[in-house]
Sequence to fold (360 residues):
Amino acid sequence: MAENRIDIKSLTEQELHTLLTEMGQPRFRGGQVYKWLHQGVKSFDEMTNIPAALKEKLVENCYISVAAIEKKLISAYDGTVKYLFSFADGETVESVLMKYHHGYTSCVSTQAGCKMGCDFCATGKGGFRRNLTASEILSQIQTEQLDNDLRISNIVLMGMGEPLDNYDSVIRFLELVSSEHGLNIGMRHISLSTCGIVPRIYDLAEKKLQLTLSVSLHAPNDEIRSRTMPVNKKYPIGELLKACRYYAEKTGRRISFEYAMIDGVNDSDACAKELARRIKGMLAHVNLIPVNSVSGSDYRKSRGDRIKSFIEILAASGITATVRRTLGSDINASCGQLRSAVAKEKAAGGNVSNESVFTK
Ligand code: SAH
Ligand code: SF4
Fold:
């Protein structure tokens, strides 16, 4: 069923003002409705200070999108919670709530599936379903806050999907989530991760947002990168790094390069030297992530001594690199895996319980 009504939670406060003024409402009404929407109400009925006649009108013309909990896994190690959320049309995405010393971080999805087809990624292997709306991205954070009765202080756009392939909705989401009467999460507390859609990196640079741009590099040259990440055939590493330099200069913000360490593929000393040569002098940091094995690929984590050597070679060129701390290692299995496991269980006619604590 196609939804013809307005996706009201995707509207900015200004757009909501305009809509409600057109409905003959006083000036303050937009602010009231905006606050309710950003507190995470699921229906217009919950808006107690809104007149009944207006609520009826809103139900007729608008809908409130929600992220419903389809399945939930809680790590027995560190309390990390992994969610499988479903939307009105039945599409599902994953999101992870993590606790760090500085507060709670939510890792949200921006698309159901992904078109980019990276070889090591469970989401990429599952194909593309559709873009998420700004409100659907926001709803993941709202549901997590309400489900756990806490305030999320940091967001990473590192769940399923390629954020810069859903550029307009992602920009709209950023505006909503950082707005004063919304969740008010500052751009400095937000990271956006991309596989390297070069033209959109330039677009983003012009906006001069104070967010952290993470670039999934995962290889030091075209030969290895094109083998593992098809996007590199369209936007080769040289062009990508040029865009990254431009971004760092334009925004004054440090780029975070993500580098999944894959045994025997991209973890040699020669790879480290080539990487160092290419990003030397750039305002950047390297995040090394021992690759998570996913079904359907033979990739294995690099050995500890390889990672150590990599860090030393980068450090010799003045590049700081750290190994990403992995939270929820018992439930992690990188984004895309929970969704495909549930789909398989359902296809096999299995009973899918919606909450489990993994003890291992
Ligand atoms: N599409 C965006 C953001 C989502 S993926 C991107 O690619 O950047 C989030 C991060 O997880 C990316 O850095 C991605 O390369 C990484 N990733 C995907 N599969 C992985 C795996 N099996 N092991 C380690 N990191 C992985
Ligand atoms: Fe898509 Fe990112 Fe996975 Fe690549 S790593 S397939 S871009 S989600």
Remarks:
- Residues 350-360 have pLDDT under 50 and may be disordered.
- The chain is about 35% helix and 20% strand.
